[in-house]
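RECORD TYPE: protein structure
NAME: Periplasmic binding protein-like II
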Amino acid sequence: MAPLRIGFVPEHFSTPLEFAKKHYGLDARLLPYPSGTGHMVTALQDDEIDIGVGLTEGWIAALGKAQAAEKDAGFRLVGTYVETPLCWAISTGARRDELRSVQDLKGKKVGVSRIGSGSYVMSYVLADQQGWLDAQASGAPFSVEPLNTFTNLREGVNNGTVDFFMWEHFTSKRYYDKGEIKRIGEIYTPWSSWKMVARNQLLYPKNWSHGEHASHPALKEELEDALQKINKGIKHFEENQEEAVEYISTKLDYSEEDAREWLKTVGFSQDVRGVDEAVVQKTVGILQKAGVLGEASEQDMVGLERSK
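PREDICTED:
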């Protein structure tokens, strides 16, 4: 059988995936998606990847929007990769002197990687926290410009295409240190930050895998095996932090100092298998309040619930 295709964002969070493949025989092709979760949604639906490791809010927004359109998204939530929240840094151009704080961003233009991506969804969570959605009930709190990549977003705030964008703090920090962009705020996700999804073809139908007459597990064998190998990659990551720092600072776009600082802030799952339905419910509720989602069934988003 062909190796599974796993889509991931080529940032520091991907290190345990690399270790799972290098040290524990994860039978998969690791396919990078630098423009993030929104791009992986499309890739899953186009049969370009089998599993995606991406941002909680991006997956749940896509699943909810598919429900609203009365379509099947083609994938379900099957795993919890990172337990800690994500710190989204809010950035503008280095010489944008008129933009000094989050309060200056109301009614401005936000750059996002894609519509429906984490950077898009979190801009609306920010607007909700700032009270801009109430004040702008008749329209959007800002205009939105999709620019695909982190590089394009950095260029966009400097050439005036957009006024601000949001990206993970440590990935942004190197460019603050260089003086290329300016940090004007931050926002944390109110949920655990990274989840794993799998195409429906890797799941057994719920009526086969749930209830007292269940005849199959929820996950097909190759998906179960991949998640177990990723668990081993995470354990290796936690027990071999110097190897992790070397990988992050030589193969990815981070300084050694920033890699060490990030390690103090991140907590990966001890067992990636399954998601907490309460986390899904909380995320849906906040995205509904922020105007990203309408009515949604959290249960239908989940392919594997965490053991109670």
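COMMENT: The beta strands are 4-8, 28-32, 51-55, 75-82, 87-93, 109-112, 143-146, 164-168, 181-188, 194-199.
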